[in-house]
Amino acid sequence: MIEIAITDRAWTRALGNARALTRRATRAAFADLAPGAAAAVRLTSDQAMSELNRRFRGKEGPTNVLAFPATSGVGGGLGDIAVAFGVCEREAAAQGKSLADHLQHLVVHGALHLIGYDHQNDGEAETMETIERRILARLGVADPYADRDGLESHVRTLG
């Protein structure tokens, strides 16, 4: 089961299908790697994301996506993902991507963190990116890493 909460109306104003895109991306990430897994996804504001980032990571300001793995896998629930509208919208514009594609990428990225993937070093980052590319291709989303110059900013941003 994928629970989706949209707590910032900007998501639905910008993407009337934000809920469907989020559900599809989450399911695609779990399909091969964690079949039957459940998670909660919150599409939120920069302000709410800033609070989460400060509270749980000790960092100021919003980030694009945060993943909170569950402390127990009871019921197949892997954890929660939060995505900030303003950050996602600005990044999509700066990278020349559609908001829909960037949302799906961030949701897949967060879901992979819930499954246990990370990008703390080059090897981990390469593995995670390869999996992301495969999932996103199935969703019809262009390779977000095709511009290798953007990789460093991606790792900083998603980290």
Concise synopsis of the structure shown:
By secondary structure, the chain is an alpha/beta fold.
Helix and strand arrangement:
Elements: E1 2-6, H1 10-14, H2 18-33, E2 38-44, H3 46-57, E3 65-69, E4 77-84, H4 85-95, H5 99-115, H6 122-138, H7 151-158
Parallel strand pairs: 1-2, 2-4
Antiparallel strand pairs: 3-4
Describe this structure in words.
With about 160 residues, the chain is α/β, with parallel strands linked by helices. It has a single domain (about 1-159), classed as Metalloproteases ("zincins"), catalytic domain (Collagenase (Catalytic Domain), 3-Layer(aba) Sandwich), CATH 3.40.390. The chain is about 55% helix and about 15% strand. It contains seven helices and four strands. It has helices spanning about 10-15, 20-35, 45-55, 85-95, 100-115, 120-140, 150-159; strands spanning about 1-5, 40-45, 65-70, 75-85. A four-stranded mixed β-sheet has the order 1-2-4-3, sandwiched between helices. β3 (about 65-70) and β4 (about 75-85) form a beta hairpin. α4 crosses α5 (about 100-115) and α5 packs across α6. The chain is globular and about 30 Å long. The chain starts with a strand and ends with a helix. The relative contact order is 0.16. The model is unreliable at about 150-159 (pLDDT under 50).
Question: Mind telling me the CATH class?
Answer: Alpha Beta
CATH topology: Collagenase (Catalytic Domain)
What is the strand arrangement across the widest sheet? 1-2-4-3
Helix content: 40-55%
Distance between the termini: 26 Å
Please state the overall shape, judged from the principal axes of the Cα atoms.
globular
Number of domains: 1
CATH architecture: 3-Layer(aba) Sandwich
Main sheet properties = 4 strands, mixed
Q: From the alpha-carbon coordinates, what is the Rg to the nearest angstrom?
A: 14 Å
Number of helices: 7
